[in-house]
Specification:
64% helix, globular
């Protein structure tokens, strides 16, 4: 991945799962010590969520969407995933995020 980021093709379901991770840390539960636990500001998380939601909307016909993820955005997703992983047991994680923990981790790691 370049310093500015790479264009990444994600399945519609993957976009939804990453969006759900951000939704949870932004409003699903209180994240104590945000600055230490999340690698990015709340504003950056909101901006990334909007970007993912836009990609999801454009993926409705094709079944996939294209997003540009910078290394810092991937870091924000990874740290958000880790916070959700610590907050939810396996069953609740799957219910809230829409996929098992291991699958979401694979999606994020594939784009580091």
């Amino acid at each position: 991945m370049s310093a500015s980021g790479n264009e990444i093709r994600l399945a519609k379901s993957e976009i939804a799962q990453l969006s759900n991770i951000l939704n949870e840390v932004l409003g699903g539960f209180a994240v104590s010590d945000w600055d230490r636990r999340i690698r990015g500001s709340r504003a950056a998380a909101v901006e990334l969520l909007e970007q993912l939601n836009s990609a999801f909307s454009s993926s409705l016909d094709a079944g996939y969407g294209v997003v540009m993820l910078s290394p810092s955005q991937v870091g924000l997703l990874e740290s958000s995933y880790l916070v959700c992983d610590a907050e939810f047991d396996d069953s609740e994680f799957g219910t809230r995020i829409g996929a098992p923990k291991q699958r979401v981790e694979q999606i994020i790691r594939a784009h580091q």
